[in-house]
Amino acid sequence: MKNETINKLYNLLQDELEYIIKRIKKRPKVTKNNYGDYMNQIIKLNEITNINYKIIAELLKMAGGNINGINDAMRIINL
Questions:
Q1: Whole-angstrom distance between the N-terminal and C-terminal Cα of the chain?
Q2: pLDDT tens-place string over residues 22-63
Q3: CA 46, 51, 57: angle at the middle one, nearest 5?
Q4: Which of 1, 11, 29, 35 is most buried by a 10 A CB count?
């Protein structure tokens, strides 16, 4: 059930999510695996959509985001 919901959300937001990932990948790596940029986007998307941080992280991974960078960002957010 949960994966199905995440897949539906991804299909709705795919273009925007892929655009976010492309932007992050073009930026200079100021933090390891761009975790700072991922953290910023996860928090921003949560504020805009009220979607759970973990779900946003999954959506960003599905869009091609750096898994290590996203996981590092999530570790910091969840402190």
A1: 28
A2: 999 999 889 999 999 999 999 999 999 999 999 999 999 999
A3: 75
A4: 35
